[in-house]
Design a protein that fits this description.
This is E3 ubiquitin-protein ligase pellino homolog 1-like isoform X1. It comes from Petromyzon marinus (Sea lamprey). One of its GO terms (biological process) is regulation of Toll signaling pathway. Belongs to the pellino family. By secondary structure, this protein is of the alpha+beta class. The chain contains 8 helices and 33 strands. Strands 3, 4, 5, 16, 19, 20, 21 and 22 form an 8-stranded antiparallel β-sheet that branches. A 4-stranded mixed β-sheet has the order 6-8-7-13, with no helix packed on it. A 4-stranded mixed β-sheet has the order 10-9-11-12, with no helix packed on it. The chain starts with 19 loop residues before the first strand and ends in an 8-residue tail after the last strand.
């Protein structure tokens, strides 16, 4: 019978002939069973958080993305921190708990939305056509919000907005000006360690740790705005474009814009704001496959007015897609918002309450290390580093995963688990297994300890000494961002090619989510480091070796 949270380890051949041996407390332990049974005080198994299906959801606002609560007690959808009600959180994909250089001010890897002391929401009021924008009071006044649609050089439609006391507004964008609540930079593509920047907390930003930009940003300075209802059920809606420091939004002549059937103006931003809502399926409880419980939805584009359309042919095409009347801009738990350069995950307060926490993931790491997995060849005990250790080592000694973004010099750790991504066998760090042709091509680089050696292991094909399979050989690192997990099961699978370790359902879910890439491409990506997933499935089941003493 399978026990949730317990890790099954395989024993070596040397221990197969001995059926029983004394444990550390004098008890006799049958080999081949769970290693945690050999400890006098084993850690308690983590609480099971079955995946919540749409069929089992109690209410229309309960998403299939969130796990089932650990108790039958119902709590309000929003949690309070003092007098501030929490609406939810926005988490940037590609970072493992924090930015590479650390979270600073409004620029961070996750942003919590709380009810403001004073409502600042707005809603459209009236519109008119003007020939002189400079003389328009709605545009020149910094106290009033407005959206201007440029029809020609001499004609502009100005839509005036008035305050809405029932909503709070939050602005997201690249600009560091005061109106922007959440500053988001481009998430750089993942690179193997030593390939031009630490992986650590994620792909990093387009400005890098040195401050010099590597590419022009594709994220708008005022990318989008999110309006949350101040009263339950605290629904959140996303709109393209955000108000600048003068409380204005301007769509020029070349921007895609139109007049709806009711006479109201609407439009799209240059690179667009895309949204995808997860779809819950049948199946119930948490016993089925992930694909039976929740599946990725279809990417849509949201307009400045909040309507949903099919995607354009390319990201910045002039012609809009078709209106999708059956979908809305209302965010669900697990919805993704793409800003053309960075993708945000929306987690509701209710969804976060039902999800694993950072403490829960740390307990899973401790239980995994308490099982004392060993290298099947070197027989040395392996241990996953904590999030703080990953940050200090800038990725835990290389490989392809980490948690700190290379803020410090990488220090190889002999206890760091490594794995062959073709078969999943977990080993310690070693130099053997290089094919002759690979060794000849990389002569002079093997046996090192720096970034060049780490990059060589990532690029070259290594032979697993257990099963003789060929494939990449990378360091393993635990995914520390709790918001990316879809359940609370044990971390038994690693994403490829980066080596971030998470639960099976979490790996299956993100391997099935196509994230926007470029102007019209979509790829499955590791949520912890923004690495494009490779291999047949995008992940591999890890095979650990139990202790032989």
């Amino acid at each position: 019978m399978r026990v949730p949270g317990r890790l099954l380890l395989q024993t070596s051949r040397a221990s197969r002939g001995r059926d029983r041996s004394p444990g550390r407390d004098g008890r006799r332990v049958r080999r081949g069973r769970r290693v945690t049974d050999a400890f006098p005080r084993p850690l308690p198994p983590p609480p099971r958080l079955p995946f919540l299906s749409a069929a089992a959801a109690a209410g229309p606002r309960r998403s299939a993305y969130a796990p089932r609560p650990m108790s039958g007690k119902q709590e309000p959808a929003a949690t309070s921190r003092g007098d501030a009600v929490k609406y939810g959180e926005l988490i940037v994909l590609g970072y493992n708990g924090s930015l590479p250089d650390g979270d600073r001010g409004r620029r961070k890897s996750r942003f919590a939305l709380h009810r403001r002391a004073k409502a600042n929401g707005v809603q459209p009021s009236s519109s008119h056509i003007t020939t002189a924008m400079q003389e328009c009071k709605a545009v020149s006044s910094k106290e009033q919000h407005s959206i201007s649609y440029g029809l020609s050089r001499s004609h502009v439609v100005v839509v005036e907005y008035v305050h809405d006391l029932d909503q709070d507004m939050f602005l997201v964008g690249r600009s560091g000006e005061a109106p922007v609540d959440f500053v988001v930079m481009d998430t750089a593509p993942w690179k193997p360690p030593g390939g031009g920047g630490g992986d650590g907390g994620g792909g990093g930003s387009s400005t890098g740790s040195g401050g010099s930009p590597t590419a022009q940003s594709t994220i708008s300075r005022f990318a989008c705005r999110i309006l949350c209802e101040r009263s339950p059920p605290h629904r959140a809606r996303v709109y393209a474009a955000g108000f600048d420091s003068s409380n204005n939004i301007f769509l020029g002549e070349r921007a895609t814009k139109w007049r709806d059937a009711d006479g109201s103006m609407d439009g799209l931003t240059t690179n667009g704001v895309l949204v995808m809502h997860p779809r819950g399926g049948g199946g119930g409880g948490g016993g089925g496959e992930l694909s039976e419980l929740v599946q990725p939805g279809v990417w849509r584009e949201v307009s400045v007015g909040g309507k949903v359309y099919t995607l354009r042919e390319t990201r910045s095409a002039q012609h809009r897609g078709c209106l999708v009347e059956t979908e809305s801009n209302e965010l669900q738990d697990g919805s993704l918002v793409d800003l053309c350069g960075a993708t945000l995950l929306w987690r509701t307060a209710e969804g976060l309450r039902r999800s694993p926490t950072v403490r829960h993931i740390e307990l899973l790491r401790q239980e995994l290390n308490a099982a004392r997995p060993q290298c099947p060849v070197g027989l040395n005990t392996l241990a996953f580093p904590s999030a703080a250790q990953q940050q200090w080592r800038g990725g835990g000694g290389g490989g392809g995963a980490g948690g700190g973004g290379g803020r410090h010099v990488a220090r190889p750790d002999a206890r760091q688990p490594w794995a062959y991504l073709t078969c999943g066998h977990v080993h310690g760090r070693h130099d053997w297994g290089l094919r002759e042709e690979a060794a000849a091509a990389g002569a002079g680089g093997t046996g090192g300890t720096g970034a060049a050696w780490q990059r060589q292991q990532q690029e070259q094909r290594r032979e697993c000494p257990v099963c003789r399979s060929l494939g990449p050989y990378v360091a393993l690192s635990l995914g520390c961002e709790a918001g990316f997990y879809v359940d609370g099961e044990a971390p038994t699978h690693a994403l490829t090619p980066c080596g971030h370790v998470c639960s099976e359902r979490t790996a299956r879910y993100w391997a099935a989510v196509p994230l926007p890439h470029g102007t019209h491409a979509f790829h499955a990506t590791c949520p912890f480091c923004a690495a494009q997933l490779t291999g047949e499935q995008g992940f591999v089941r890890l095979i650990f070796q139990g202790p032989v003493d």
